[in-house]
Amino acid sequence: MRRLIINGYGAFVGYKKGLVTVKKKDGNESVPLGNLDQIVITTSGAAISSKLIRTCLKNKVEISILSSSGRPLGKVFSITKSHVKLRLAQIEARRTSKGARIAKKIIYSKIRGQSNFLKSLAKNRTGESKDNILKTSERIDQLSSQLQELPDELSEIRQRLVSIEADAARAYWDSIAGILPAELGFSARKKRFEGPKDPVNISLNYGYGVLASEVYTLVEYSGLDPWFGFLHEDSCRRPALVYDIMELFRAAVVDRVVVTLALRSPNTLLKAIDATSGRLERDFRGTLLKEIFERLEQGVSFGGQQKPIYAHMLSQIRELARYLLDHSHDWKAFVLGW
Question: pTM (2 decimals)?
Answer without folding.
Answer: 0.91
